[in-house]
Design goal:
InterPro entries: WxLIP_HBD (IPR021759), WxLIP_PGBD (IPR010317). With about 375 residues, this protein is an alpha+beta fold. It contains 2 helices and 21 strands. The chain folds into 3 domains: about 160 residues, Sandwich (Immunoglobulin-like), CATH 2.60.40.10; about 120 residues, Immunoglobulin-like, CATH 2.60.40; about 55 residues.
């Protein structure tokens, strides 16, 4: 099952599970208890303070879930986190404790985990963890700073609780439901997520997964991912992630092929489904992605350049034509004015000549 008592290696405090008589495996550091219906039991958890100041510690009991890295997780989660619908009996229905504990300087205290097993027996296991977080500032680790901001390390521990009533074999029941694959983003990187559930009250170890993504009616694999060594908590789900890479999402219909296999149980599962990335989803995710490469649309730039060049040529031709027309009109106007000027002196000379003739005729008559 692995080590279920995990903690930070910084200063502050440390924890130790005091294993009771009904501990199944004495070689582990977590509670692995064989319980009976209707019993009540108190577990002791020792907290050590290695500093010269009092330490205030938050104590939470959380159901075990499967995170998207394929690990069983007991940490604090968001308030709106939805547990799998198959989880009928959670550790929080059985175990309780004080929410805060103060550990005096250089001292040890024991806090209690109170168990109240339901009268009705349960199959498989109930899995959860005690999650402890330091509420005091870790002064030994406040020296690190970045960009003028101090980094304060928190001391965190988790101690697992596994409850069983018998050795009855329960098989894992992994399920993928239609319509549970979609485009998403993690840490600014575009990914495809597929929700996989474990409906059984048993954990599964040494799981391997393989996913391939295709265009809906194509046989060429667009992206794929294979992993091994994953785990799943009882009655939990996680999202198997397939990185899309540095290419932007394209709107369209796609097909996913999923497979899973457990080396421990020898079980295997296969699923297929179709999903769609809408234009709006692609645009939104691509705009916020941090690792998308610029697409090599050289032909687009070439067409744009040719279009701009043609536009410039058309503008130049238009200007030249307009200029020539204007020049032609100017020349025609000048020619018209010149013709007018030539005609005016001829009329004037004719008028001047006419009186002379009249005078001459008059003179002859008088002579």
């Amino acid at each position: 099952m692995g080590s279920w008592a995990e903690g930070a290696e910084t200063g502050g405090f440390s924890v130790k599970a005091v294993l009771p008589e009904n501990q199944l495996n004495p070689d582990v550091t977590y509670y692995d208890l064989r319980v009976k219906p209707g019993i009540e039991q108190t577990l002791d958890l020792e907290l050590y303070n290695s500093t010269k100041e009092n330490q205030k510690v938050s104590v939470m009991i959380n159901p075990g879930i499967t995170n998207d890295n394929g690990l069983i997780d007991y940490s604090e989660r968001e308030k709106n986190y939805q547990y799998d619908e198959s989880l009928k009996l959670a550790i929080t229905d059985i175990a309780s404790t004080d929410k805060e504990v103060t550990i005096p300087a250089l001292s040890k205290v024991t806090t209690n985990i109170r168990l109240k097993i339901p009268n009705q027996s349960f199959k498989g296991m109930v899995l959860g963890g005690i999650y402890l977080t330091s509420l005091s500032e870790d002064k030994d680790n406040q020296g690190n700073s970045e960009g003028g901001m101090q980094i304060k390390n928190k001391v965190v521990y988790s101690v697992g609780i596994k409850l069983t009533e018998n050795d009855e074999l329960v098989e894992a029941d992994l399920l993928y439901e239609k319509g549970q694959t979609f485009a998403a983003q993690e840490a600014g990187r575009n990914i495809i997520k597929s929700k996989i559930r474990n409906l059984a009250p048993i954990n599964v170890d040494e799981l391997s997964y393989h996913a391939k993504i295709y265009a809906k009616d194509d046989q060429e694999v667009l992206v794929e991912r294979a992993v091994s060594g994953y785990r799943m908590a009882p009655n939990s789900y996680f999202h198997y992630q397939v990185p899309w890479g540095s290419q932007p999402f394209k709107a369209g219909k796609y097909r996913v092929e999923l497979s899973a296999e457990s080396k421990i149980t020898g079980q295997s599962w296969q699923w297929q489904d179709e999903f769609e990335i809408t234009q709006a989803e692609a645009k939104k995710l691509n705009e916020s992605a941090i690792d998308i490469e610029e697409t090599n649309n050289w032909w687009l730039y070439l067409a744009l350049g040719i279009g701009i060049l043609l536009l410039v040529i058309l503008v130049i031709v238009f200007i030249v034509i307009q200029k020539r027309r204007k020049e032609q009109r100017r020349r025609l106007e000048m020619q018209r004015k010149k013709k007018k000027r030539k005609k005016r002196p001829q009329r004037h000379s004719e008028e001047m000549k006419r009186p002379e003739k009249t005078l001459r005729k008059t003179g002859r008559k008088n002579g």
